Amino acid sequence: ENYWDGLAECYEKGLVKAVGVSNYGVDAVRAVHSKLAERGIPLATNQIQLSLLYRFPIENGLLKACDELGVKVLSYSPLALGFLTGKYDKNNRPSGPRSKIAQTLFDGEAGEAFPELLKVMKDVSANHGDAPLSQVALNWTRAKGTIPIPGARSLKQAKQNIGSLDWNLTDDELLALDTISAKVPAYIAPDKSPFPKEDINTKLRMFDS
What we know:
Layout: H1 2-12, E1 19-22, H2 26-37, E2 43-49, H3 56-59, H4 62-69, E3 72-76, H5 98-107, H6 113-127, H7 133-143, E4 147-149, H8 155-163, H9 171-181
Parallel strand pairs: 1-2, 2-3, 3-4
């Protein structure tokens, strides 16, 4: 709570224009929202991971809680380390640490679900002038009411990201993506995350998605 008081003081002194947090779970985001509200300060954002390959914030109620509290969600890793860009397939896989993720998606319990997700994404892409698959992935997170914050290693990628703002998913397209993505196991499990699950002082559950 001292940390939250510090954030509040920065806001009151005009050092920051808004207060946001990162990787806060349901209990933690409700707690900090309540603490700041005591001083008349809104909690503006909660930055969390969300993508077609990482749906936990939807499944465990975190996204709903943020919406109820008026907290805007910034969704990081919306392209799932590049796996939602169409760059990789069974025969073209990344090296290094991501090779294990590729094995999970292409050879593991996901079966044919992940390739099928990519197929549905390509169908959606075709409906919008063969838009890059990255735009399909970004617009899915936008359709969930969040603000995606994708990375970009080149000007081309940056322009593609911005281009996602030029169109939106239809209801049918969103339903199709929801249906198939729900069948794909998450590319990384929350319990494998390096973020602390519990505050060492308050014992408050901090991270759950």
